[in-house]
Every structure is written in structure tokens, then in C-alpha cells.
Design a protein that fits this description.
heterodimer; A: 312 residues; Rossmann fold; six-stranded mixed sheet; 11 helices; B: mainly alpha; 13 helices; globular
Chain lengths: 312, 233
């Protein structure tokens, strides 16, 4: 559906996007993750035709954004980082304008009413955008992207600046939309991406540092992070015992817990919780707590971007 | 293009700019018309029309300053650029909307023509030539303002630069000849307002029509390039 090939964008000497290649399948939600200034917005601006690439190509449904801009752009709805709202218009006037601008073919009234209902802005449709709160403005921005029912939605940080309740609401709207649209969504908030997206693309300094499902990413980087266990028993004895368990690579004693037991961090190749618990119990110890340390996307993110920096 | 035209025209009248432009123009040019036609009892509308030229120099920058600078400032240009419209369509839509407001301002002097037609002997050729010249001059000014609105995000800078350029062009027209033929030729080319004189005199020279139209086309082209260039930067 969306094909990005060797995309490069330079601003003078600064490389904002560096040889980016990826595809998005029809119906997929792709999360675009990266710190501020990673090149997320630049990439999105290029995909939507607002900005031209220094090198590389973008095609939407087989149509190149430069060779067939009209046909390609008709299939895209874009919500930029700052929603492109005319503050002097009412919500209805604005959506009417966007409808005409995009030369949409749907039944105007029914189509716009539907969009207003989906984005929950029907109660403010007669108000000037200037007087709307940030949350409503963001939703009007989203509504604008939906006009003309484009197959592809590009959403640049759709939840930025919203309060927690609004964030959840917008996320639900996006999930709802995913049934009929292919979506690229950018964010620097990691739980958001893992909550909504099928696949995550982590970019840093204009390059892809990782690409996978949120779960796989967690597994991939999380292999070495080990197991935390709180065990009741003589710490020296237990440490020696744990080290003998097959698969265990190292044991760190963290210290005694006030409520009893000692905390250990066990490094292992695989999930050895079962082996650990049987060993400990056979030797008269007691397990108070044991868990696999799964990396959150935050950890993955920091790890990946740090290792990138080390390489450079 | 139609959608942009409609929006721009609406924007002129939801903000004070459209009213201010038409109102101030009608008021100041009204003083000229009133003095010359009503008080002094002359029948020639082209004279106060020529006097109104300076008002255009001062007012057109107000009309054009926001056209593109505002879109860039508020990032609404991203909506236009990602929509299935050409940059030409965007720019022409804006130009036509500004010209529409300009035409409305021009219409405010029609009552004086009516007065002359009733109480005097109107020379229709002169009147039509004057209005045509005024319109063409306005088109050139608006195109110039449109261009300077596209080179900056700041409406104030667009206003000041356009005002400076239009004033300079106006002054070219009243500069004495230098005697250096190349320099005089250059000044003649730059004196946009001077060619309006022959329209006011009731003389229609096709070269002047071509001059104004090509000047406008040139600045519209520059505007399109300037918006395009920003995409490529």
C-alpha cells in the first residue's frame, strides 16, 4: 500500500532522513517511533507530498507521489504535528472547505456528519475553531484527514498535548479507523505505539534502528535481561545453588528485602524460572517472588538508540 | 482552486481586512471624487482616479500580506500541499480572491460615474479606459504583494516589504530623467504606475495592457516558484 524506497532528505549539510526504506501493507497500523528530531515529521511530510525528498521515492497504492501527485494525494489523509486549522472558520465551514479542496465525491452531508460522529466533534460543529480547546482542535484535525475517505492515514503525533482521557479516546478512534484504513502513526510516547500498532519502526537520526511487532521487539532485546527472584534462605548457599542451574550465566545478589528473603538478579539464556524454583525448593529454600524482566518499549528504545550512538 | 478562492474571500470578510481595505479606499478616494466632481463640478472621473493611485500603494500591502505568509505561519500550508490541488491552483485562487476585494473597492466609486452621467456629459471611452487601467494596476500590485507574502512567514515583513517596493515603483514614475539612456529605460520599465497615466488620458495602448498582464504573470510565476522552492529547499 505504502512503499518508501531509499528516502533521503538533506537540509543543507544536515541529513534529516537517511536512506529510509519500508513498506506498509494494506490495513496495517505502523508505528513510527523516535526521539524528537529523529526525522519522523520530515518523513511524513515527504510521504504526503508537502516536502520533496532529496533522493528516493514514495508510492501510495502503486502511484508515485511525484509522478502522479493528484491521484496519490487523493488517497492520503494527513494530520500534521500541528493540525492545519483555519482559526477564523467554524468547524462546519472548515470541513466543507476541506471537502471541496480534496474534491471528495461522497454525499457531502452524510459523509461529513459521519466523520463528525467518529471524531466526536458534532457538538461543536457551529463553533469557531479559534474558540475550541486543544483536544477538540486535535479532533477537528483528525476529522479533516478523514474527509474523502482516503485509504491511507498519516497521523503525526495525534495525541500530543491531550489529557489522559482524551488520549485514550483518540486511541480508540484510531483503532476503530484501522479497520478501513492503512495507518502510519508517529509518536515519541512508547506505550501509545504498543497499544495501537501492529508493527513498530524505530528511527533515530533519520535511520531505521529496529522494525518488528512490539512483542517481538521486546523479546529480541529482552533476552539478556534475566530474571528477578526473591528467595528465602542463606544467601551464599542459594547463590551457589542458582549458579548450578543449567542455562544460568550469572547471579547477582541485590540484597535482603525488609519483608524477608533476598533479592537476586539471574542472567540466563532462556526462561529458567521452572528449573530455578524446583532447585530452590528441593534444597529447602522458599520462593517469595519470581519474574521475567521484560523490557518495556522504553528500555528497548534507549538501548537501541544508545547502541546506535556507540557505533557512530 | 475554487475551494481556495471561496475560503480566501470568506477570510477577508470574517477578519476586518476586507472591510478595512474597502472602507478606507472608499473614504479616501471619496474625498478626491467628492472634491473634484461634486464640489468643483468637473465631469472627468479619471482625474480623481489618478489621485487614488497613492491610496493603492498604501493599501494593497494590507490586502496581500496575509495571503501566503499566514498559511506558513499557522502551518495550514501543509493541508493545501498535501491536498490534490496544484500549486498554481492554490496561488491563482488566492490572487482571484484578493482581486475580488479589490474590485469591490473599485465599485465604490461607481456612484460618482452615475452622478456624472446624470448631471454632466460623460466621456465613456475615458471612463472605461481609466477603470481598465486601474484594474490592471491593481492586478500588478496584488501580484507583487502576493509574491512578497510567499517569501516570509511574517505578515508584518510581507507588509513592509510590499509597501517599500510599491512606493519605490511609484517614485520611479515621478523621478526626473537622468539623461543616461540606459538608466532612463530601466526607470521607465520599473515605473509601474506611469503607464496608468495613458489609460487615465483615455489612450488605450495595447503595449500597456501587455505590460501589466506580463508583470502580473511574472510575479504569480515567482510566487509559485517560491512556494515550490520551499518544498525542495
Amino acid at each position: 500500500m505504502i512503499e518508501v524506497k531509499n528516502l533521503t532528505k538533506r537540509f543543507g549539510a544536515k541529513v534529516a532522513v537517511d536512506d529510509l526504506t519500508f513498506t506498509v501493507q494494506s490495513g496495517e497500523i505502523l508505528g513510527f517511533l523516535g526521539p524528537n528530531g529523529a526525522g519522523k515529521s520530515t518523513t511524513m511530510n515527504i510521504i504526503t507530498g508537502c516536502l520533496s525528498a532529496t533522493d528516493g521515492s514514495v508510492s501510495i497504492d502503486g502511484r508515485d507521489i511525484l509522478d502522479e501527485p493528484y491521484k496519490a494525494k487523493k488517497g492520503i489523509g494527513y494530520l500534521p504535528e500541528q493540525p492545519p486549522l483555519y482559526l477564523d472558520m467554524t468547524v462546519d465551514e472548515y470541513l466543507n472547505f476541506v471537502y471541496e479542496l480534496k474534491k471528495a465525491k461522497q454525499n457531502k452531508k452524510r459523509h461529513l456528519d459521519e466523520i463528525k460522529k467518529t471524531t466526536k466533534i458534532d457538538d461543536v460543529s457551529k463553533r469557531r475553531i479559534r474558540n475550541l480547546s486543544k483536544g477538540y482542535r486535535q479532533r477537528v484535525g483528525l476529522a479533516q484527514a478523514l474527509v474523502g475517505n482516503p485509504a491511507v492515514l498519516i497521523l503525526d503525533e495525534p495525541t500530543v498535548g491531550l489529557d489522559p482521557a482524551q488520549i485514550i479516546e483518540i486511541r480508540n478512534v484510531i483503532k476503530e479507523l484501522a479497520r478501513q484504513h492503512t495507518i502510519i502513526l508517529s509518536s515519541h510516547i512508547l506505550p501509545e505505539v504498543s497499544a495501537v500498532c501492529d508493527r513498530v519502526l524505530i528511527i533515530n537520526k533519520g535511520r531505521i534502528v529496529a522494525e518488528d511487532t512490539p512483542e517481538n521487539l521486546s523479546k529480541k532485546v529482552g533476552g539478556e535481561n534475566g530474571i528477578t527472584a526473591v528467595i528465602d534462605g542463606d544467601p551464599d548457599k542459594m547463590k551457589a545453588l542458582l549458579e548450578k542451574v543449567p542455562g544460568v550465566k550469572g547471579v547477582n545478589v541485590i540484597g535482603a528485602r525488609p519483608e524477608g528473603g533476598t533479592e537476586y538478579i539471574i542472567k540466563a539464556d532462556a526462561d529458567v524460572r521452572r528449573a530455578i524454583s524446583t532447585t530452590v525448593i528441593q534444597q529447602g529454600g522458599a520462593i517469595m517472588e519470581i519474574k521475567l524482566n521484560e523490557l518495556s518499549l522504553e528500555d528497548i528504545f534507549i538501548k537501541l538508540t544508545e547502541s546506535e550512538e556507540e557505533k557512530a | 482552486m475554487k475551494a481556495i478562492f471561496k475560503r480566501e474571500l470568506m477570510a477577508y470578510f470574517t477578519s476586518p481586512i476586507g472591510y478595512v481595505f474597502i472602507g478606507v479606499f472608499a473614504f479616501i478616494s471619496g474625498i478626491y471624487f467628492n472634491q473634484y466632481i461634486i464640489v468643483e463640478g468637473n465631469g472627468d472621473v479619471s482625474v480623481p482616479m489618478y489621485s487614488s493611485l497613492l491610496i493603492l500603494v498604501l493599501l494593497v500591502p494590507v490586502l496581500t500580506m496575509r495571503l501566503i505568509a499566514e498559511e506558513r505561519g499557522s502551518r495550514t500550508d501543509q493541508l493545501l500541499l498535501s491536498a490534490p490541488v496544484s500549486i498554481w491552483g492554490i496561488i491563482l485562487g488566492k490572487l482571484f480572491a484578493a482581486m475580488c476585494v479589490f474590485l469591490l473597492a473599485m465599485v465604490t466609486s461607481f456612484p460618482y460615474v452615475v452622478i456624472v452621467a446624470i448631471h454632466g456629459v460623460p466621456v465613456w471611452g475615458d471612463i472605461i479606459a481609466s477603470y481598465l487601467g486601474f484594474f490592471l494596476l491593481g492586478l500588478s500590485f496584488v501580484s507583487i504583494g502576493l509574491f512578497f507574502s510567499s517569501v516570509t512567514e511574517s505578515q508584518i515583513i510581507a507588509l513592509v516589504v510590499t509597501l517599500g517596493v510599491l512606493l519605490a515603483v511609484f517614485l520611479m514614475g515621478i523621478l526626473p530623467t537622468t539623461g543616461v539612456s540606459l538608466l532612463d529605460k530601466a526607470i521607465e520599465l520599473l515605473a509601474v504606475t506611469e503607464r496608468f497615466k495613458s489609460f487615465v488620458d483615455g489612450v488605450f495602448k495595447p503595449e500597456n495592457l501587455v505590460y501589466y498582464l506580463s508583470l502580473s504573470a511574472m510575479f504569480v510565476f515567482f510566487t509559485v516558484r517560491s512556494v515550490e522552492k520551499r518544498r525542495w529547499n
